[in-house]
Automatic annotation (TrEMBL):
Residues 18-241 form the Sialidase domain. It holds the Pfam family BNR_2. Transmembrane segments: none annotated. This is BNR repeat-like domain-containing protein. It comes from the Bacteria. It comes from Puniceibacterium sediminis. InterPro entries: Sialidase (IPR011040), Sialidase_sf (IPR036278).
Length: 242
């Protein structure tokens, strides 16, 4: 495709690596669709590219692949009428694999507010609570959307992805692409900043219901995404651009 963006990697238990991204003529146009490819252990090269979304009237972006507790591989992505940022909705579908070929079922939109966007992985906690990091696009009246008023939120589900609740994080204007990391008995979250100052961090000790006030880390951020994971050593590794 002319544009290929927002690649997301997911490693399965059998060592297979799936990569999903969106591609088309231009981000936001209606021909933008979710693409994916498979890398088998010892395969040496990526498999053929498959299209996992098929809505010709929507721009479908920012794919996230996650394993559900029941073994399903889930694709979550945003979908919007071309050019309408505040109309974003989140769609979830089951992904099937046959060798190196991926396909996605029809799926459905999550019952969350319009304007919600995703980028970071789904978190499944021990109490069967699902946490989907999102941010909501807020457009000032009579003004063009710029992203400066976006807010971070959590899509929470205890219904195995069937029922969702929108839980906005207070005091987070301009903090987006929330990336939670599970620690020992708590969660830490890292944020991209529209203000282009520093990566910010907050914490939760109650499973993501209440978060502490965001605080700037010493890592600069130029309004680009961050990704963080916990290593086997217990340390947190973060990737970002400076």
């Amino acid at each position: 495709m002319i544009q290929n963006h927002a690649a997301f990697l997911h490693e399965c238990e059998d060592g297979v690596i799936n990569c999903a991204w969106f591609g088309g003529s231009l981000e936001g146009k209606s021909d933008i669709a979710i693409r994916a490819s498979v890398f088998l252990p010892g395969g040496g090269e990526w498999g053929a590219v498959a299209t996992l979304s098929h809505d010709p009237d929507h721009s479908e972006q920012n794919p996230v692949l996650s394993a559900a507790p029941d073994g399903r591989l889930l694709l979550l992505h945003t979908s919007q009428p071309a050019g309408n940022q505040d109309e974003w909705r989140i769609r979830m579908a089951k992904v099937n694999r046959d060798g190196t070929k991926l396909s996605a079922e029809a799926g459905k939109y999550l019952d969350l507010s319009r304007g919600c966007f995703i980028r970071a992985p789904l978190q499944v906690l021990g109490d069967a609570r699902w946490l989907l990091p999102i941010f909501r696009c807020v457009q000032r009246p009579s003004q063009k959307w710029t992203g400066s008023q976006n807010v971070a939120a959590i899509g929470g589900s205890k219904g195995y992805g069937n029922i969702w609740a929108y839980e906005e994080i207070s005091g987070c204007v301009g903090s987006v692409h929330m990336c939670p990391v599970a620690l020992d008995g708590s969660l830490a979250a890292f944020y991209r900043r529209r203000q282009a100052d520093h990566v910010h961090r907050s914490e939760s000790v109650d499973g993501g219901l209440i978060w502490t006030a965001r605080a700037a880390t010493d890592v600069p951020n130029n309004n680009s995404s961050v990704a963080a994971i916990r290593l086997a050593s217990g340390e947190i590794a973060m990737i970002c651009t400076l």
